[in-house]
Design goal:
Layout: H1 3-29, H2 33-38, H3 43-71, H4 78-96, H5 99-107, H6 111-116, E1 119-122, E2 125-127, H7 134-161
Antiparallel strand pairs: 1-2
Helix pairs in contact: 1-3, 1-7, 3-4, 4-7
């Protein structure tokens, strides 16, 4: 196996583990309660909340990726790191606006799942979103799958444009 192959596999594994394992912290802990409640609202107000959430999420993901890769001796080029961050950020924004996720779920035949896996947190109010719902599970699954793509894009660009250190 060539050295560049081993380097690529190691970098991809480090990025993927970081993106996957830091995702819940960035998606839940770094998000304000106000943004969590407002990001799915229609119009500019919802977009504002979602953009703030995605900004904190992205900062956490990038910070973790830089810390992990530096500790392991990788110097990921800025353009490679930025490209992976853009993949994660743009798709995170689209998914968290909710309607695109609902549309994708319907196209994938998940309408029954979304309607079935709901929660009742208050008397007489059934929530289709939030912890314990199908929509949240689909949201998390999509984010994590996209993290694989972001890791791959970052690795490919890093190997293509990075210094061999």
């Amino acid at each position: 196996m060539r050295g560049s192959t081993v380097r690529g596999l190691a970098l991809f594994a480090a990025l993927q583990a970081t993106f996957a394992d830091i995702h819940p912290l960035c998606d839940q802990w770094l998000q304000s309660s106000e943004d969590a409640a407002g990001k799915g609202k229609p119009g500019r107000e919802g977009a504002k909340h979602c953009a703030r959430h995605v900004a904190s999420y992205t900062a956490g993901q990038v910070g973790a990726a830089v810390a992990v890769t530096r500790v392991l001796g990788f110097r990921v080029p800025l353009r490679a790191l930025a490209a992976g961050a853009v993949v994660n950020a743009v798709t995170h924004f689209v998914i968290d606006r909710r309607e695109p996720l609902k549309t994708l779920a319907r196209l994938a035949g998940k309408r029954g799942y979304i309607e079935h896996a709901t929660v009742q947190r208050r008397d007489g109010v059934v929530d289709v979103a939030g912890p314990g719902t199908a929509l949240t599970e689909l949201d998390q699954a999509a984010h994590r799958a996209i993290g694989v793509v972001a890791s791959l894009v970052t690795t490919w660009l890093a190997l293509r444009y990075g210094r061999q250190s």
